[in-house]
Specification:
heterodimer; A: 149 residues; three-stranded antiparallel β-sheet; 3 helices; B: 391 residues; nine-stranded mixed β-sheet; 14 strands
């Protein structure tokens, strides 16, 4: 684990993620990002995962929700590409994580990706990409995606 | 579950509606100024004295600011619920029905905000501290806000096939109707090809799939049907309303296209309304994005899920470049958010009121006794409303 990231105090972390919905319930998720760890809340009592981070398990109402690392593997459920002038369109994928039906996380797709090269239904895995001297989560295609053959 | 009883059926009326009209430019005016103009106009056209207003319900500015700005007297009730505007209508109707107040002045200002357009971002009167991320922060991907509609439009096309024709027909219908609407921001003719060739903004959605950021305001008087009968204009009765959300309601987590806020609102409204598709003379599906309107048509049951595009094509009038559902029902007769302007639904309500009052001028539908309206989209802002002309 990155000791430096662990030491970032809450006030600094709020500045680093200005504009993001950081509060007492989600701050562990964002601190995890600084440590290159994707942390998703999981209930210590019933095992249910949920995202975005809530202070209570929506299934069993246990307060013992724990930031937990999923495998990072999943399937693209939603996909769009944002136009950026002359630059290639920027992909944004919402991925169904393998851990639980409907447990989803949104990030970009690594590397050059255009509509048609990446599709809804593609299998992906978590990776980390550099952005403004920091690392942020992204997904990359994994396994055998038929249309790539 | 017990039988649904729609207690407020036809008890509350919209007595009148007025508008500043809408422009797709940064006006040199404040939101308060736009609201003031529309509010004064509606009180005059209804013949309501300001001393009679005892309730306020709107968006921006807040009700206390509007109260002082217009020199109103004491008010007994006010609220500023989130838009789309059917929420304001429903909230006001509930206050009147409950007896908390008697005559509500309802208002909404549409305003080009920093995130709408680069021109708005440069206007110091429109920029707010939160409109840009602070220096030193790292942007992370989100599908919050408008991006979600592109993502879910792509999901729709993945499940059902390309819907770009249906989306184009929604856009062209709006533009053809806006040509007859002097309040509209956009009235230049549009073709299906214009839609398909417009700039790809968020794949698969193009510029002409998105509503037009505008400046302008609408205002309404909402009171009991009994009081409205004595005012200057024919009352429009609120028959049923719904404001709903699905169990999973985030942009990211919504379970599927068949489990949106639209599905919930369609079900709730149908259980309460005396007016449904077979009896509605006018249909106003919310169209902040073309794909939202298609979602509404499917949720309401105009056609099966996934058949929206084919349904629109089958109900297209080539001669007028307009929709005519079942050869009978016009859709978004004012041009919708896509062409009249992005009014967050206040335009849909105002136009339905004008049609049902018979004052819609060149747009007046030949038969206009009942209307079915929807507001908002897939997630946390879906709303429904049925209106009918008083006998």
């Amino acid at each position: 684990m990155n000791e430096q990231a662990r030491e970032v105090d809450d006030a600094t972390l709020l500045q680093l993620f200005a504009g993001q919905p950081v509060d007492q319930d989600s701050i562990d998720h964002y601190r995890g990002l600084l440590q290159r760890r994707l942390l998703i809340n999981r209930c210590a009592d019933c095992g249910n995962w949920h995202h975005p981070p809530r202070p209570i398990c929506p299934k069993c109402w246990s307060l013992r929700v724990r930031p937990t690392e999923p495998s990072g593997a999943g399937t693209i459920f939603l996909l769009t590409f944002l136009a950026r002038g002359d630059s290639p369109p920027h992909p944004i994928a919402t991925v169904d994580l393998d851990e639980q039906v409907g447990l989803r996380y949104t990030a970009t797709i690594e590397g050059p990706a255009k509509p048609g090269e990446v599709q809804v239904g593609d299998c992906v895995e978590l990776t980390w990409i550099e952005r403004q001297d920091r690392e942020v989560p992204a997904f990359r295609l994994s396994g055998s995606n038929e249309h790539l053959q | 579950m017990g039988r649904v009883v729609n207690h407020l059926r036809d008890y509350v009326a919209i007595a009148g509606a007025e508008s500043t009209g809408f422009v797709a430019d940064n006006t040199p005016r404040s939101r308060a100024s736009l609201v003031a103009e529309a509010c004064v106009a509606v009180l005059r056209s209804c013949g309501v004295e300001r001393a009679e207003i005892d309730g306020l319900c709107g968006s921006v500015p807040t009700a206390p600011v509007v109260q002082e700005m217009l020199g109103l007297g004491d008010i007994m009730w006010f609220a500023n619920p989130p838009t789309p505007f059917i929420n304001q209508v429903v909230t006001a109707a509930q206050a009147v029905y409950s007896g908390t107040c008697n005559v509500v002045l309802a208002y909404h200002s549409s305003y080009r905000l920093p995130w709408n357009t680069p021109a708005s971002l440069r206007d110091p009167f429109r920029a707010s501290p939160g409109s840009r991320a602070a220096d030193g922060s790292v942007p992370l991907e989100t599908i919050g806000g408008p991006i979600a509609y592109a993502s879910w439009a792509a999901r729709y096309d993945y499940e059902y096939g390309d819907s770009s024709l249906g989306r184009a027909l929604v856009a062209v219908n709006g533009r053809s109707n806006a040509a007859l609407n002097p309040l509209a921001a956009k009235s230049a003719p549009m073709t299906i090809a214009d839609h398909h060739e417009s700039r790809l903004v968020r794949w698969p959605l193009r510029l002409l799939d998105m509503d037009v950021p505008v400046d302008g305001a609408d205002a309404f008087v909402i009171t009991t049907a009994e009081r409205a009968r004595d005012l200057a204009l024919p009352p429009v009765l609120i028959n049923a309303c719904a404001v709903g959300a699905a169990a999973r309601n985030t942009e990211e987590g919504t379970a599927g296209l068949d489990a949106t806020g639209q599905s919930v609102v369609a079900r709730a409204l149908r259980e309460r309304s005396d007016i449904w598709l077979d009896g509605a003379d006018l249909l106003y599906p919310y169209d902040g994005f073309t794909s939202i309107a298609i979602g509404w048509l499917e949720a309401l049951g105009c056609c099966a899920p996934g058949e929206g595009s084919a349904y629109l094509a089958a109900n297209w009038d080539e001669r007028t470049s307009r929709l005519s559902l079942g050869g009978r029902v016009p859709v978004n007769t004012h041009g919708g958010a896509l062409s009249e302007g992005g009014t967050q639904g206040s335009g849909h309500v105002r136009e339905a009121v004008h049609q049902l009052q018979g004052v819609a001028g060149p747009r007046q539908a030949s038969r206009a006794r009942t209307a079915l309206l929807t507001g908002g989209g897939f997630f946390t802002n879906a709303q429904g409303l049925t209106l009918r002309a008083a006998d």
